[in-house]
Amino acid sequence: MSTAGGPRGHGDVSTGDVSTGDVSTDDGLVVAVDGPSGSGKSSVSRAVARALGLAYLDTGAMYRAATLWCVRQGVALDDAPAVTAAVRALPLEQGLDPEAPTVLLDGDDVTAAIRTTEVSAAVSAVATNLDARAALGDRQRAVIAAERTGGWSGGRGVVAEGRDITTAIAPDAPVRVLLTASEGARLRRRSLEVHGTADAAAVAATHDQVVRRDAQDSTVVEFRTAADGVVTVDSSDLSFEETVDALLAVVRAAGRA
Ligand SMILES: Nc1ncnc2c1ncn2[C@@H]1O[C@H](COP(=O)(O)OP(=O)(O)O)[C@@H](O)[C@H]1O
Ligand SMILES: Nc1ccn([C@H]2C[C@H](O)[C@@H](COP(=O)(O)OP(=O)(O)O)O2)c(=O)n1
């Protein structure tokens, strides 16, 4: 895979098409990244996608958008069948440009709205609903398959990040990484991001959306230990740039950059 140039395609990609299709080994690259909250998945995956000219698929954004959609439609998040029905019909369009990933719900730009504390606190209700997971997983597989042969990246490929990409969504990806960091590092990062400080009060206020949420999510998905063949990158003592370089080194080691 050449790192020169940018993506050949353009425009947003509807994530409602669940067709997958066969792919050959000559097709575009798939980099699968999983890990707990605050490990750096989103920011590092975006930077890796930019560096390699690949599309960027934030699967956590899909769970967040599904949660916001349920709230807006008046669907009770503890009503699992109603949540499943809403998620199956989710009017989601996701922009895959790593420079500016966007999320539209029924045409409404919710890129910022899905990051609120309210959504962060509620999203595990969708993430632990197995039928909703299956529906979102189908969409994720369809996007990944499309990017391997065309799509936004023009067939260059995609960096897809989440909790089950290396294991359930793209277990055959040529590059699979579990991005980890200590709980302390993850709390400090999220606290800095959300509150602008990592003092004791801010870290305590961040606990729910990092530690409690990961504990709840890990009841249905294993994202704390690497599956066979998945490379672990521990970013606890790495700067952001060093973490991006570590992932690019994994891609190079796989002979794909
Ligand atoms: N290696 C790192 N060192 C310091 N800060 C980082 C590192 N990686 C990510 N960050 C910062 O930590 C915060 C959380 O990262 P993010 O990519 O949102 O994590 P995740 O998607 O895993 O929850 C962001 O503000 C990001 O810029
Ligand atoms: N492939 C995925 C991606 C995200 N999730 C869940 C886990 C999280 O609670 C939510 C939101 O994911 P997101 O990656 O945005 O979470 P962070 O705030 O970055 O920790 O979705 C999942 O279960 N499976």
From TrEMBL:
Coarse class of the protein's main subcellular location: cytoplasm
Keyword Nucleotide-binding on entry: yes
Binding positions for ATP per the UniProt entry: 35-43
Highest taxon listed in the record's lineage: Bacteria
A biological process from GO: pyrimidine nucleotide metabolic process
Domain (Cytidylate kinase) ranges: 31-252
GO CC terms in record: cytoplasm
Top-level EC class: transferase
Record-listed E.C. numbers: 2.7.4.25
Subcellular compartments: Cytoplasm
This protein's record includes keyword Transmembrane: no
Region (Disordered), start-end ranges: 1-42
Reactions catalysed, as given in the entry: dCMP + ATP = dCDP + ADP; CMP + ATP = CDP + ADP
An MF annotation (GO) of this entry: dCMP kinase activity
Family: Belongs to the cytidylate kinase family. Type 1 subfamily.
HAMAP family per the UniProt record, alphabetical: Cytidyl_kinase_type1
Protein's recorded name: Cytidylate kinase
Gene name linked to the record: cmk
